[in-house]
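Practice problem: predict the structure.
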Amino acid sequence: MSLAFPYHTAEMVRAIPDDGSRYEVVHGELLVTPSPGRPHQRVVTELIIRLGTFCRRYALGEALVSPADISWSEDTLVQPDVFVVAPAESGGADWTSVRTLRLVVEVLSPSTSRHDRFAKRKLYQEQAVETVWLVDMEQRLVESWHPDSIFPSVDSERISWHPAGAPDALVIELAELFQ
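Answer:
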């Protein structure tokens, strides 16, 4: 399969041999990024620990990390860094049943920032992902997006997530996240 093909499908992306890069497709556009670095993975690990604990405590769904093949159509397949699957879709054996994401977190890096901020974020909004966090480690801030957002709310001190069904919010101090 040629990577120079102008329009890609989820099936084409699934057929690419594993070469250490991450392949995604958004509305037919192939997105290729290298494996994430250690600082990126430290932030992902901290978030999955906190989100996983919070989701289990209140039965809010399942907190997971990529690699994952989240696909809403033939020309989309994304691998969010961290995501929360709705309770009704939790515990499945494969990714085909995952359609409802309550939260998506993309940890930005120089090689992913443009794709995460624009193509993928817009796709998440189209798919009615309840909350999207774009974590900017360099600027030490988080952009929060919702399906109807035109602009994000930007937080430099703390982020909070208060989904339906939770009696209180998960609050994460950014100084702790970025240490």
